[in-house]
Design goal:
The chain is 47% helix and 14% strand. With 338 residues, the protein is of the alpha/beta class.
């Protein structure tokens, strides 16, 4: 029977869940595979072999890097708190580059994408990493198009995920590509995952938090925007919250946040709308109103321009529905429809 060889590159200080999350998906898929399916053969290799201590203290037994010779189906590279040291290890980076050339596909979790980029594997490609490090990655590797939004990005034979638990989502997507949606969903169900998230799912809440400026007046204006998002929010009124002139506010805001106040307001409205579409059963009109859009038609156009999906399409893909009733029911008195 053919096997799909999964080689996991581990190193001292790597994050345990970046490693164990994806491999539990592959192992569970193996146990659920029909007899005709090609199971995953999981191997660990490390420059720190034979016993590798992860950042949480979990020990992983691994073979030397040389044991990873030959064709590889999936090369998996995790992140970890020791990533900066790993990036300085030229032998490790060089081996990843060589192994990638022998791999059908290459996947990373969290900061593992830095190791792929350091090896030159992501040049000219779109990739993601943990939201807290997207800006650093974009500055360090200007030839990589870093997308801070999705939980994982698939570009050609390279798949990069945002961090920690998103490695599980990525692994489920790999199982689906190999064996179909039915096995991926059965695997998710067996692992008691209430939701199988697609790669387009956003890291948006963390991203918005990270964008709060250090400059106190601008930060106060941002917080006021979040508290009053359902209102029209003209820029002049926002500037008043910062106690600044309109011209000076626009200049300082762009310097501190990296975008204009108007663009920030629209992006924040879209983020609020995404949250409501994912976690409530509010109608499109209700979502538009609570996100501060003047009319449903304006909301639909803005949403489509930002995400390439209609609100209904986005909800169909990403709404969080669980046995515990995570979807919030709207007020009975607020059930207008488009």
């Amino acid at each position: 029977m053919l096997q799909r060889r999964v080689v996991v590159v581990v190193y001292s200080g790597a994050q345990a869940l970046d490693i164990t999350g994806p491999i539990e998906v592959f192992d569970t898929a193996n146990r659920l595979l029909p007899g005709s399916g090609a199971p995953y053969q999981i191997e660990f290799v490390s420059i720190d072999a034979p016993l590798v201590r992860t950042s949480s203290g979990v020990m992983i037994e691994a073979a030397p890097l040389e044991a990873g010779h030959g064709p590889i189906d999936t090369l998996l590279v995790p992140g970890g708190w020791s990533l900066r040291d790993a990036l300085k290890n030229r032998a490790l980076v060089a081996w990843i580059g060589q192994a990638a050339a022998r791999s059908r596909r290459v996947a990373s979790v969290c900061g593992g994408s830095f190791l792929l980029a350091e090896a030159g594997l992501l040049d000219g490609r779109r990739a993601t990493t943990h939201w807290a490090y997207c800006e650093e990655m974009a500055c360090r590797y200007p030839d990589v198009t870093v997308d801070p939004e999705p939980i994982f990005v698939w570009d050609g034979r390279f798949v990069t995920s945002a961090g920690v638990s998103t490695g599980i989502d990525m692994a489920l997507a790999l199982v689906e590509a190999d064996h179909g949606a039915a096995l991926a969903l059965e695997t998710a169900r067996f692992l008691v995952l209430f939701l199988k998230r697609h790669g387009g799912q956003a890291q948006f809440s963390a991203v918005l938090d990270a964008q709060l400026a250090d400059h106190a007046p601008i930060r106060a204006a941002q917080e006021w925007i979040l508290d009053n998002l359902q209102d029209p929010l003209p820029v002049a009124e926002i500037a008043q919250q910062a106690n600044m002139s309109l011209r000076n506010f626009a200049r300082v805001f762009r310097r501190e946040v990296g975008t204009t106040p108007g663009q920030y307001v629209e992006r924040t409205r879209i983020a609020r709308a995404r949250e409501l579409l994912e976690t409530t059963d509010l109608t499109t009109s209700q979502v538009a109103r609570r996100s501060g859009f003047a009319a449903p038609e304006t909301f639909i156009r803005s949403f489509g321009r930002a995400l390439g999906l209609t609100p209904n399409q986005y909800r169909h893909r990403f709404q969080v529905v669980s046995p515990s009733g995570l979807v919030v029911q709207p007020d009975q008195a607020d059930r207008s429809s488009v």
